[in-house]
Design brief:
Structural class: mainly alpha
Helix content: over 70%
Radius of gyration: 21 Å
Shape: globular
Distance between the termini: 43 Å
Keywords: Membrane, Transmembrane, Transmembrane helix
Number of domains: 2
Number of helices: 12
Number of strands: 0
């Protein structure tokens, strides 16, 4: 998500200097393109590689009009009802089937509608989200053998499922250890999402007990 306001400002500045210094047109265009490429590179670094939660949050807040990024802010500060509404906006906004199915599954899991969540997970089995969703559902229902039977592609997924199992089994020390490893293994927006969803899961477990 390039900040086009800054691109326009840069274009004006480069245009002024180009006129003053008699730069070739190709030089001016190259400077603007370089800025745009750096902006795109920074965006992808934050989204997929950063481990700094504060920088990730700043990025999210600057782009909170995007339904998916807005959902991450809601995940940190909102109620369960707020989360459902935010996921509804994602499902309505995005047209990509994997995105829609993933958030339909997540929405059903958040509502403890595990039968419906399984249906969406079945449609995602050719992606990493399907097995992870299946394992999460099994973990949340306390089915350890089934939760550990799915091949998960990423280390953070394995630790996140371990944390969910520990919560179902009321093993809070194990939960804390697994949750920490899960967050450490995730990067970018996934790290932010995982961090706050696990904090909220622990809080809700404590309220129930």
């Amino acid at each position: 998500m390039i900040n086009w306001f800054y691109v326009i400002i840069l274009g004006v500045i480069v245009g002024v200097f180009s006129a003053m210094l008699d730069w070739p047109f190709s030089v001016s265009i190259s400077i603007i393109l370089l800025f745009a490429l750096c902006s795109i590179g920074f965006m992808y670094y934050i989204a997929f590689a950063s481990t700094n939660l504060l920088k990730i949050k700043n990025y999210i807040e600057n782009h909170k009009k995007d339904p998916m990024l807005n959902y991450l802010l809601v995940l940190e500060n909102g109620t369960k009802e707020d989360e459902i509404e935010a996921m509804d906006r994602i499902i309505e906004h995005y047209k990509q089937p994997v995105m829609k199915l993933t958030y339909e599954m997540n929405r059903a899991i958040r509502l403890n509608d595990f039968e419906r969540a399984e249906q969406f997970a079945d449609k995602l089995m050719d992606t990493p989200n399907g097995p992870y969703g299946k394992a999460s559902i099994a973990a949340l229902t306390g089915n350890r053998d089934r939760a550990k039977s799915y091949p998960l592609k990423k280390a953070w997924m394995i630790y996140a499922v371990d944390a969910q199992l520990a919560l179902a089994e009321n093993k809070m020390e194990t939960f804390d250890q697994s949750a920490e490893k899960a967050v450490e293994g995730a990067k970018g927006l996934q790290r932010y999402s995982l961090y706050y969803s696990l904090i909220k899961a622990r809080q809700e477990h404590e309220w129930k007990n």
